[in-house]
Amino acid sequence: MEQRQLEFFVAVAEELNFTRAARRTHAVQSTVSSSIRALERDLGTPLFARSTTRVELTEAGRALLPEARRSLDSLDQARAAVDGLRAGITGSLRIGTLSGLTAVDMRRLVRDFRQRHPGVQLNMRVDAAGSDGLLAGLRARTLDVAFVGVQSTTIPGLHLDPIATFQPRLIVPAGHPLAGRSRVTRAELADEPFIDLPVGFCNRARTDADFRDADLTRTVAVEVSDVTTIPSYVESGIGVALVPPLATEAAAGVVPIELDPPARPWTLAVARLSTPEPTRAVSALLALIDGVVVRHGCY
């Protein structure tokens, strides 16, 4: 089993198309196909189910994929460690983040990192499934580090460094009947339409759990993928929301109100796999994060 075979295998597994995999690996399609067949002969089992219209991973292929990624990552780390001794840190760094995040100055983080380590290519990503999707990306080794919202900083297989903890509270339009209140109960909100993030985001998980534990149901009328846009939707009168303090609230006609009892807090953290040890590029990025945290109390 050779490195190039694993590279071809991972490319086909992720693209599910031999032509695109060949283009991605800068090889001709016949070379990719023959390499995959040789790998299947070596392993004694098909890795792909092929038809004239589609390519799918077999059970054996699905089992091999994370191990192949892990092997290629290890080879890249070994090569980067040697190359780094000669010419500083090189390679690539895949960073997952949350849309609308202002508690960390991402632009400054990227600028500072690039100034120190110009030989590292950065790939910044968000995930439609929120923190759940980012954590899955870490486990699948398609991300090296991720900024996530979590209910607990103890997650098996992952190392998380807390950055800030946020306390969600209710925001309503300025003219809402509850706008003059200092506190409201969850029962008083049971008939209100809510604006929230999709399932998979920590803020949504926390709020759903709060209402479920109170034996209450709520209606999420609108789902948005960027939490910082929620105040503008609330201002328009579409619904109410439970969110952490947001910098965008200042420009919107919304009123914050505390919940009684308070909503469950959640933590913004930077996450990575607990093993193996972080690469030099990951360690260099982690060393810069504390200097770019914006401690203004807002997400």
Task: Describe this entry's structure for a reader.
The chain has 299 residues and is α/β, with parallel strands linked by helices. It folds into 3 domains: 3-65, Orthogonal Bundle (Arc Repressor Mutant, subunit A), CATH 1.10.10; 88-165 and 267-292, Periplasmic binding protein-like II (D-Maltodextrin-Binding Protein, domain 2, 3-Layer(aba) Sandwich); 168-264, D-Maltodextrin-Binding Protein, domain 2 (3-Layer(aba) Sandwich), CATH 3.40.190.290. It is 38% helix and 22% strand. It has 9 helices and 13 strands. It has helices at residues 3-15, 18-24, 29-43, 59-87, 106-116, 130-139, 202-213, 230-235, 280-289; strands spanning 48-50, 55-57, 91-96, 120-125, 145-150, 158-166, 169-173, 183-184, 193-196, 219-223, 241-243, 254-259, 266-273. Strands 4-3-5-13-6 form a 5-stranded mixed β-sheet. It has a 4-stranded mixed β-sheet with strand order 8-12-7-11. It is elongated. The N and C termini lie far apart (47 Å).
Key terms:
single chain; 299 residues; alpha/beta; Arc Repressor Mutant, subunit A; D-Maltodextrin-Binding Protein, domain 2; 3 domains; five-stranded mixed sheet; four-stranded mixed sheet; 13 strands; 38% helix; 22% strand; elongated
